[in-house]
Specification:
mainly beta; five-stranded antiparallel β-sheet
């Protein structure tokens, strides 16, 4: 199936980047999303030899200004992104260890960060002096030395997952009484669920990703004595989830093994102890020739849309209006290096809740991205909703590509090939549903193929590797 399309103005702005040098390295594929601003710093320490520098991201807004809080291997960074074209680094505060994993959340005027680095505990930051400065209030080691994830509910209760002190449950802390001096409310093992990798909490219900054991919902009305409501066995390592605004379903991602699609948990029968899968699992790989390793990391829901950070496929926006048939509404590829879904590079986290509607995201290699999503350009214009369409092989070992469309329209069809600078290299009129496009005269590298059918367009990244 076809997984990418765009109106002509989207195609033009998909190549928007902050500088020529960044553009030359990172020409992007995009649909209904536009890059507004970007920040990277090659001097930040990295983990290992594979240049994994950045990790988690969260947002904060106050006094008509917007901020991005970004984790990296060594620091927690605080940016003013009110003017997205000009992100300003306000401060970066050093952790106690260099680590791949950090997680950040906000409650009131305080930010909280944990990591799997040795001895960092719970880092508490005072945000009340923004945009001037940020101060580190405490490194609290009272409850744990390292942790994988945190979530703070609407009542100021923090749920801490993957700590060194509670291996198969959650630590629950009270922040509402005193945000800088958390108090323990519970630290019970979740018998039957096991290790909790990530958690979302609302109305005292904890929606837990229990890794290989699947997706569980626990009643935390009494944090000292949680009670199991229901669970759902899923395909692989249940990594993270997010609840819909009306609480009727949750989207979940499975990180291991690579290539598992997203799923939706139907929670309509939760009160009678059951969770069902809503429809089939689904995925929308940007490399249509190799869909088996398209791997989601962290999903978030805003309205009827899921905003999902993808390893090697950037950010995807998925329309969940019909839970049994999700559709791809937009995307922005933060990691154009990808040609084969061979690893866990690319987009780590995305935050879609800033008042402006701007979206902030982190790419492990390429840093902070500030983007917009245009939901007025309907995903119904996607050619793939009406035609089974593919371009293959991709990459091509000889520069020759085949275009196949099962449902051939009556409208004029063309394909235009451009290089990374947007320069047109080739154009061909398509007269049938199965044609060969010979690009053997082009040098090895990345190109964009824009297929136009009437007023509809699809942009595909093409790779020539002779």
């Amino acid at each position: 199936p076809l997984y990418s399309s765009a109106a002509s103005d989207v195609y033009k702005r998909q190549l928007l980047l902050l500088s020529i040098s960044y553009f030359q390295i990172n020409a992007q594929v995009a649909f209904n999303m536009e890059l507004l601003g970007h920040y990277d710093d090659n001097t930040i320490p990295q983990v290992g030899s594979d240049q994994k520098v950045f990790n988690d991201i969260w947002g904060y807004a106050a006094d008509n200004r917007e901020y991005a809080i970004v984790g990296s291997a060594a620091y927690i960074h605080f940016f003013d992104v009110t003017e997205p074209q000009n992100p300003i680094l306000i401060d970066q505060i050093l952790g106690t260890d260099t680590t791949i994993w950090r997680d950040i959340k906000v409650f009131g005027t305080y930010a909280y960060a944990v990591s799997e680095g040795n001895g960092e505990g719970l880092m508490i930051f005072d945000l009340s002096d923004l945009p001037n400065s940020v101060s580190l209030v405490d490194r609290n080691l009272d409850f744990f030395e390292n942790a994988h994830n945190i979530f703070i509910d609407e009542n100021g209760k923090m749920f801490v997952a993957g700590t060194n002190t509670i291996s198969n449950g959650l630590i629950v802390l009270d922040l509402a009484t005193n945000p800088t001096q958390p108090q323990l409310l519970g630290n019970k093992d979740l018998i039957g669920g096991g290790y909790v990798h990530d958690v979302y909490v609302k109305d005292n219900l904890a929606y837990c990703s229990h890794g290989w054991n699947g997706f569980y919902v626990w009643d935390y009305n009494d944090p000292a004595e949680p009670v199991l409501k229901a669970n759902l066995a899923t395909n692989g390592y249940n990594h993270s989830s997010w609840l819909s605004e009306d609480g009727t379903y949750a989207i979940f991602a499975e990180e291991v093994p690579r290539g598992l699609p997203l799923g939706i948990a139907d929670l309509s029968l939760l009160n009678v102890g059951a969770i069902e899968l809503a429809g089939d699992y689904f995925q929308f790989p940007l490399l249509t020739f190799d869909s088996s390793f398209n791997t989601p990391h962290n999903p978030f829901i805003k309205g009827n849309y899921a905003f999902v950070s993808y390893y090697e496929d950037g950010i995807q926006v998925i329309d969940l209006t019909d839970k049994t048939n999700p559709t791809l509404a937009g995307y922005y590829d933060t990691f154009p290096n990808n040609v084969d879904y061979a690893g866990y590079f690319g987009c780590w986290g995305v935050y879609p809740y800033l008042p402006s509607g701007n979206i902030i995201a982190t790419d492990r290699k390429y840093g902070l991205h500030i983007l917009s999503f245009d939901e007025t350009l309907s995903s119904n214009e996607n050619l793939g909703n009406n035609n089974t369409f593919s371009i293959f092989p991709n990459p091509s070992s000889n520069g020759i590509f085949n275009i196949k469309m099962d449902d051939v329209p009556n409208e004029k069809m063309t394909i235009e090939i451009t290089d990374l600078s947007g320069r047109k290299m080739f154009e061909q009129v398509l007269t049938s549903g199965s044609e060969e496009v010979n690009l053997s005269f082009l040098a090895n590298g990345f190109y964009f193929g824009k297929v136009t059918i009437g007023e509809k367009e699809m942009v595909e990244k093409l790779v020539i590797s002779k």
